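Slide 14.
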Amino acid sequence: MGRRKEIEVEIRVLILGGTAEARALAAALTERDIPVVSSLAGRVARPRLPAGEVRVGGFGGPEGLAAWLAEHRIRAVVDATHPFAERISASAVAATRSAGVPLLRLERPGWEASPGDDWHWTSSLTEAAEALPELGGRVFLTTGRQGLPAFADLDDLWFLIRCVDPPGPPLPRHHELLLNRGPYEVDGEAELLRTRRIEVLVTKDSGGSMTAAKLVAARRLGLPVVLVRRPAPAGAPRTVTTVPAVLAWLPRAA
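Slide 15: predicted structure.
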């Protein structure tokens, strides 16, 4: 037990991301007195802050991240960013390889269809936008504010756009903006779909339970769902899906 505690104290961990999984990991490490720094991108105005030390903002690319790891004596990096945060995940792979620091990817599983689902998979937001005219004229769009320009030219459709912070232009001409943050409940999502007379839902395959209620509500109402597939993995040496798996890996990373 003493040896295990000694190993844990030697580890200083950097967690990339502000996801629910990242916050759960930060809390678990803090409870075990393992020094941890959580790095948030700073794209959300009022993020839910994790336990422990927090930094906000970029590192200046892979070179900047590698230098930061050395300067702060980081012994292990856990990439717990959003499944669609391609740039930082690729940067983490390059930086940890350069700095000789172990890297682990913590990623929630994607969603899986259930009986009654009418899912239409696409490879990009552009493909999702191209699929919409054949599926419905009133769209519930929950792909995040940064991807909204892909839908800006669909002047014949009406959009209910839900995101955490106000988006910038360009936006679809006909839309209603709903600023809100999960978790959501199925009954509330179903009521939202009914009152706005939604005909099709568009979302990314983010996975997790915080925003899955909209998929259940769409199934209940018989609505089609356009899902954007996750990007290809960035190349982390190993990926796990749970916080206990990260805790089991850390002593071996020391």
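Speaker note: Confidence is low (pLDDT under 50) at residues 1-9.
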